[in-house]
Amino acid sequence: MGLYNRSVFRLSIFASFVLAILSLSTFKVDGQLDTLSSHSISSEDQKSSRLTENSLDANLTSLFDEVDQSVVQISDARTTSLGSRQGSGFIYDNLGHIVTNYHVVADPQKGQETNLDGREFHVTFLDGTTQIGRVIGTDPYSELAVIELENMTGNSLIPLPLGNSSQLRIGQPVVALGNPFGLSGSMTEGIVSGFGRIMPSSVPQGDLLLRQQDSPSFLIPTIIQTDAAINPGNSGGPMLNTVGEVIGMNTVVLSNSDVYAGIGSAIPSDIIRKVVPELISRGTYKHPYIGIAGVDMTPEIAREMDMNDSRGFLVTEVTSGSPAERSGIRGGGALKDVNGRQIELGGDVIVAVDNDTVRKIEDLLSYLQSDRSVGETVILRVIRDGKPQEIGMTVEARPTQQQQETGQSQQERPTLGINAINITEQIAARMNLTVQQQQPQQREFSGNDLVGQQGGVLVVDVFADGPAERAGLRGGFVVADIDGTPIEIGGDVIMRIDDTMIPNIEALDEFIENKSIGDTIQVTAIRNAQSLKVPVIVGSTSELGTLQSGNGSNFTTQPQIERQDDFFRDLYNRCTETFGPLVCNPLFRR
């Protein structure tokens, strides 16, 4: 019995030992299987990664092969000592239309819009074929231009399809094609880094349109930002998505050196789709225009204006005759130093347009460019004097640079820079001048030749540093009551200019309007009852301030002065001290 129990005990120990060995063996095998499995998965991942990279490389290679014949190099047919300007472009349709940047075809020596229609350029394809193309449409405010090939249409041209830039997402892969530094057939890869940016156009600001106060030019909205390398020469080339659709046009490099610095920009395809057909059919594109300039709100500006919210666009200036002015939009009036920057505060703060929030100028620009056309109405919500207000206006076409210059030249009218009134018997009597009838052909004048058939124009005042003051013409210096109206008398009386009689202000205005700015004229005037001749160089109204209507020589007469006994007594005393009672008593009726 004891022997049996000991045998059973030994058997149990043996079985336990066997089980332990088996367990250890299983653990070791499982560990080996785990290790093998791990190595197997890692190898699969690496293989898959290599396949993905190879597929991407293959896709980009295939993409380039599909589009390379649609991308062209554009160079000026005129060669200078500095060589020929170069840029890029792409085929828009099979009618021979090439789309490129405005600054690629614009004259680099002129910082303004010029008529570029018909200007010739060389259009070179990747295979080396070069064709002549002529500019048929330009739009400096979207940086777009269209060139039409002379002798190439149909199946030989492969247009690139336009994609939908509004569907872009940050991180989406893109490729940029073009001819950087003249190197044809170049492609770079990157992603969409941002969108809704703004950049300056190639045109100086001229008049006020819709721009930032300190910007040197008009602003182009909804620009795409990318990290794909874009360098000089890439401008005008297409930016494509991975299926070969144009989602933008490469344009100026956003860096201080004009060389790629990690931030490139492209005009979105939605703008290309909207503008280019108009350039082909009309040669120009009408941009929405409201006529304001200003700055984005900041906490410092908001504090100066006693506002709690620093969002919105502060209007500092309003263009004369613009939709904004006609609708009552207000610009700034109080010039303040805000962090070392001079800003006119007190104007309307635009916070919304058609219920779309305006946080800064980009929002307003993008909305007008993308969602509104000329002739449509917009509703601006503004903050004025701390209170919200809605203002409606009809959007107009943005004036061209030439139209702005024409408008400015119309304001720059010739002038003598004087306030003047017609001489009358009452004025002549108060100036101790008598009437003497003379024949119209008589050419010499004396102090008595002031009324009757001759008439004349009394200079009441001269504008500081204006043509008349520089020439030595004098305005009035004594205020006299003429039929209840205080008038400064004692100034020069203009009788003739060159060989033309000046009987009244109308004749003076007509004569001056027919002269050119810079002309020298001979003014014959009466001063202190003596005739004198004064040479005057005709000036410009632009140097003398804002014009007003109903005036002599383009300026209003002096405002009426409220008569006060003490005021006239003081003037009389000063007069007698200077000229004596003999001169002053008749002037003051004493």
| CATH topology descriptor of the largest domain | Pdz3 Domain
Query: What is the percentage of strand-forming residues?
Result: 25-35%
- Fraction in helix: 25-40%
In CATH, what is the class of the largest domain? Mainly Beta
* Number of continuous helical runs: 12
Number of E-state strands:
33
Distance between the termini: 166 Å
CATH architecture of the largest domain: Roll
CATH-level-4 superfamily name of the largest domain = PDZ domain
The helix/strand class is alpha+beta
Shape: elongated
Low-confidence stretches: 1-11, 17-43, 45-54, 204-216, 254-258, 435-443, 447-453, 545-566
- Overall mean pLDDT score? 76
Count of discrete domains: 4
Q: Tell me about the biggest sheet?
A: 7 strands, mixed
CA-atom Rg in angstroms: 40 Å
What's this entry about, in short?
This protein has 590 residues and is α+β, with helices and mostly antiparallel strands. The protein folds into four domains: 69-156, Thrombin, subunit H (Beta Barrel), CATH 2.40.10.10; 165-281, Trypsin-like serine proteases (Thrombin, subunit H, Beta Barrel), CATH 2.40.10.10; 290-402, Pdz3 Domain (Roll), CATH 2.30.42.10; 414-587, Roll (Pdz3 Domain), CATH 2.30.42.10.
